[in-house]
Specification:
9-stranded mixed β-sheet, two-stranded antiparallel sheet, single chain, alpha/beta, 6 helices
């Protein structure tokens, strides 16, 4: 009887171990400004990555999940097309402590159109949204392939998306750029009202980057406005590389 019990216990432990997941992610999609209709496709994309790469993900839109006790469960927080002022002061403090404890953050597209009045956040993102022209096809250029998820990303490829122009000066000066968009391959000009005009960013227009920040890690990609992007394997590889690095700190030589 004892032998049978021990054997059963070993089977149970083995089953649990086989289901153990690499890390746990919090996917946050709250919007207080423009609401991207592609959010649901983005959620599906992240869930597919979780299933493929053996990590768990919880999807939330309620800022109350940003408290110290709850955030301790996670290794990485993903902001998917968030906009506007989405966390109160107490929730912001809890998130700052999360990053300071050595955890990670991933921002997708409109995460750079979020929390403009929170200096700590804007420095973590690194660059904040200014304006964008109409959606267009352009060429992407990989400028640093020493990052997970870029192994199969072509050095230069055609891509259609909504191309953010970011504010200058940058909010952080230690950003490590991964991908840029070639402004000669599309029309970057845009004008919204009398005081917001876009003419492009000049010689180099970054669209994806990462850096270590305040004890933790931050990764951002400006891709991801269009819903179908979130089922594109090249994008999914790129995004998972950012999630993997932000959650674990691994993958950069």
């Amino acid at each position: 009887m004892l032998k049978k019990s021990l054997a059963l216990l070993l089977v149970i432990v083995s089953a649990v171990s086989s289901q153990a997941q690499q890390f746990k992610a919090l996917l946050f999609t709250k919007t207080a400004g423009f609401h991207h209709t592609s959010i649901h496709e983005g959620v599906d994309g992240v869930r597919s990555l979780a299933a493929r790469h053996n990590f768990s993900v919880d999807w939330q839109e309620d800022g109350s999940v940003f408290n110290e006790a709850n955030l301790k469960k996670y290794d990485v927080v993903i902001f998917l097309n968030t906009t506007g002022d989405i966390l109160n002061a107490e929730q912001q403090t809890a998130f700052e402590k999360f990053i300071q404890s050595g955890k990670g953050w991933v921002g997708i597209h409109a995460a750079a159109d979020t929390e403009y009045e929170w200096p700590w956040y804007t420095k973590m993102v690194g660059m904040m949204f200014k304006i964008h022209p109409e959606q267009q096809t352009a060429y992407l250029d990989v400028v640093d392939s020493n990052f997970p998820g870029l192994e199969r990303f072509p050095k230069r490829m055609i891509w259609t998306d909504e191309w953010y122009e970011y504010q200058k000066p940058y909010k952080s000066q230690d950003l490590k750029f991964l991908i840029g968009v070639d402004e000669k391959s599309y029309n970057p000009k845009a004008k919204w009202g009398a005081n917001n005009e876009g003419v492009g960013m000049g010689d180099f227009h970054p669209i994806a980057w990462y850096h270590k920040y305040d004890g933790g890690r931050a990764f951002y990609t400006g891709l991801g406005h269009i819903g179908l992007v979130h089922s594109d394997q090249t994008f999914l590889d790129h995004l998972y590389g950012g999630i993997y690095w932000a959650a674990t700190g691994k993958g950069v030589k």
